[in-house]
Write a structure and sequence with these properties.
about 550 residues, D-Maltodextrin-Binding Protein, domain 2, 2 domains, five-stranded mixed β-sheet, 13 strands, disordered N terminus
Length: about 550
């Protein structure tokens, strides 16, 4: 036999054996799951998420046990730590996929690797609650114009959501604004003046440790949330990821190239020069950041509440409510509106999908369908009736002792109850939507939000003439709805020029922005010009033009 033919035969034989073994393994796994189902033992499915879940209890919490009882599914979960996108890339390249995957923006890597199952037929046959929940938005579940498959059940965007609770903006401790007579906190200068005035009066805490003016967190992707996204929020731009998009023409601009944003970063540079910026902002890890907040020494933050919540909850557990934070709609100038609640419409995008390696996709889709049902939605949001809420005169009510634990012993309460743990594992109705009993699906509505405020927080809100923090912010109806939703969840093929350029630009930005902020003010303009030139040299205009096509395709896909 000629040498080439011999090697071809060997490779073919190896491929056939590998396929046979893989097929046998899948068959064996399916048989094992069928045996478990027959014996009433739960089917164990692997689950991977790019988001951390620090209070995960292996579905041994009260809500988790009910979900397993109702669906016959128990999840063996892995939550990414460190560089989540790198972890997702490793999974995609391995060719072996967890049964259920929530990869957020990295879902394109899983799709490109052939790891995700098209859910269209499964939903049609086994997903009545999924179809009911998404209703007219079902067409937005399609992946792209070129590939109309449904790869994920959207879990990060809620249907018909009405924001009642502010979780972003700029944060100041209640003790700061109280000490200063509750000054107006409207511009970055107001924010700066409050921090500076308080530090001058109280440079240290009661133990002699130095108070910290403003602390940022730049640990991996947290760079976006705390350092770079505020540049568009404070200068009139909506959250479209790393881009700014003209609502009429869909022309794309890498948002750092907007002149107004240069002035935001100039302000951060000034804060550093004044000694008001935490010197560890660009080196601290998330755990260190939260521990610092838990010490009560950090006066101001620029973050989303879920990013610092663990630290604030630790303060509240000690009863130091004056060290908690309020949310303020801070912008560069008074003429600019904070854009935190610029509406997107229903976005689809990020969610949970079923991999091609899942041996029982029908059981998996039924699991996801239960989470979309009225029963499932009430369970994951409210908990177990009789334990976490009661029904009086047809109205769901959370008892005072449960509220106290939920607010002041939040981590342990979530670990035991499971309330909130499963929110991003299934499709969901938005805040403000009511179920068949006339009750809200979620616990985030004004009366409940107010009930969970402590007295110090209520005192601060009253001083500003409002009942909830979101009343301080511009309302969603003050902005036009973006027809593409939010650009950060538009899938871009991982091997495309746009994706490659985006990564290149990100690396430049993440190096340059901290350097610019920490430089001497006299160096700011020179360094900024060098940054802009480096972006141009790296192909920023090609990225903008290429991404514009994806934006226009999304608009067309959603309007077909």
């Amino acid at each position: 036999m000629p040498k080439m033919r011999k090697w071809t035969a060997i490779v073919l034989a190896a491929t056939l054996v590998g396929a046979l073994l893989a097929g046998c393994a899948q068959k064996e796994q399916k048989e094992q799951q069928q045996e478990k189902a027959a014996s009433n033992a739960p089917i164990v499915m692997t689950f991977y998420s790019e988001d951390p879940s620090p209070n995960w209890a292996g579905m041994e919490d009260e809500v988790g046990r009910v979900i397993t009882e109702k669906t016959g599914i128990k999840l063996k979960a892995e939550f990414a730590v460190g560089d989540a996108q790198q972890k997702s890339a490793l999974i995609a390249s391995s060719g072996t996929f967890p049964d259920l995957i929530s990869a957020k923006g990295s879902i394109n890597k899983m799709v490109d690797a052939g790891g995700m199952r098209d859910l269209t037929d499964l939903i049609e046959e086994h997903g009545p609650n999924i179809k009911k929940l998404f209703g007219k938005e079902m067409k937005r579940l399609r992946y792209s114009l070129d590939d109309p498959s449904i790869y994920v059940i959207p879990t990060y965007s809620a249907v018909d959501n009405v924001p009642f609770k502010a979780e972003g903006g700029f944060e100041l401790q209640h003790r700061v604004v109280k000490e200063l007579g509750y000054p107006t906190i409207r511009t970055v200068k107001d924010f700066e003046n409050a921090i500076k005035a308080y530090l001058e009066k109280h440079p240290t805490d009661e133990n002699g440790n130095p108070n910290i003016g403003l602390s940022l967190i730049a640990d991996d992707w947290r760079m976006y949330i705390s350092v770079t996204n505020p540049a568009f929020y404070t200068t009139g731009g909506p959250d479209d990821g790393e881009t700014n998009i003209d609502i009429e023409t869909q022309k794309v601009t890498y948002h750092y190239r907007r002149p107004a944003e240069k002035e935001y970063f100039r302000w951060l540079n000034h804060m550093n020069a004044e000694g008001l910026l935490d010197k560890e902002s660009f080196v601290q890890k998330s755990d260190q950041y939260k521990a610092k907040i838990a010490s009560g020494r950090v006066l101001g933050l620029i973050d989303q509440q879920w990013g610092y919540d663990d630290g604030e909850k630790a303060i509240k557990k000690e009863g130091k409510f004056e060290h908690g934070y309020g949310h303020y709609p801070v912008t560069l100038t008074e003429e600019t509106k904070d854009t935190s609640y610029w509406p997107t419409g229903f976005m689809a995008g990020y969610g949970v999908g079923i991999s091609v390696d899942n041996p029982d996709p029908v059981a998996a889709i039924k699991f996801l369908d239960f989470l979309c049902s009225e029963e499932g939605q009430v369970l994951v949001n409210w908990g177990v009736e009789g334990k976490h809420y009661v029904v009086e005169d047809g109205k769901r009510i959370i008892p005072e002792d449960v509220i106290n634990r939920k607010v002041n012993d939040a981590a342990k309460f979530q670990q035991e109850s499971g309330i909130g743990t499963y929110i991003n594992m299934g499709g969901r109705y938005g805040h403000g939507v009511k179920d068949s009993t006339g009750n809200y699906y979620t616990t985030e509505f004004p009366e409940q939000i107010i009930a969970e405020y402590n007295e110090v927080e209520k005192e601060t809100l009253a001083a500003y003439g409002v009942s909830t923090w979101i009343e301080l912010f511009p309302k969603p109806e003050e902005f036009p709805v973006r027809p593409w939703g939010a650009a950060w969840n538009i899938p871009v093929p991982s091997d495309s020029e746009v994706s490659i350029l985006q990564e290149k630009l990100k690396n430049i930005t993440w190096k340059r922005i901290p350097q610019i902020i920490l430089a001497a003010p006299s160096e700011f303009d020179k360094l900024w010009d060098e940054y802009m030139a480096e972006l141009e040299k790296a192909g920023v205009e090609r990225m903008e033009q290429g991404f514009e096509k994806f934006v226009k395709d999304r608009v067309k896909l959603w309007n077909d």
